[in-house]
Amino acid sequence: MTVAGPDGRGQFPGLNQFLTSLFDKDGGAFGYLAGYLDGSAGRPALAALEIDSAVSGAVTVFGGENDTVQIGAMHVPHGIVPALAFRVKVGDETLVFASDQNGNDEQFVEFAKDASILVMHMPVPEGVSGAGRNLHAPPSRIGEIANAANVDLLVLSHFMARSLSDLEQNVTHVRSGFGGRVMIAEDLACYRMDNQED
Length: 198
Hints:
The protein is of the alpha/beta class. About 25% of the residues lie in helices and about 25% in strands. The strands form two sheets. It has a seven-stranded mixed sheet, with no helix packed on it. Strands 1-2 form a two-stranded parallel sheet. Helix 5 packs parallel to helix 7.
């Protein structure tokens, strides 16, 4: 079972180190589940695919050019914290998970191009500065990205008190840069990938 994640940076472990810290039989937090590292004890082995931050642009995580399901990943700027965005293509439809990011990498626009659904995090309000802006895109930037990528549906998620304090105004800032459909993520909600309203 393939698990993809970023490589490490500073105090943030890469995927391999993270999985070892969880499942190593001698020192992992859940050592009794060590079979996930090697496929023993009847457990599926996790095939860790650590995405090298030195690689620019998209990396194939699953599937090939002619496969029905294709998954790609790319590093996105999130301050000092490693983060990946994922692009999932199923047949003719594409779903992009933007992850936590500050929106400053123009390559991400190409990565999200023509997505059926783009899911972007909105934890900070418009006008955020300092560390918050280094980590997260403000609402107006989210709208600009969705517009430049020409996505069918933008789903806003990962809210925090800062963005929830005036959610309506923050969504207005998103809409100032993107005239397409915008939805607020809700627990257990389903979103169609075929550009239908319901």
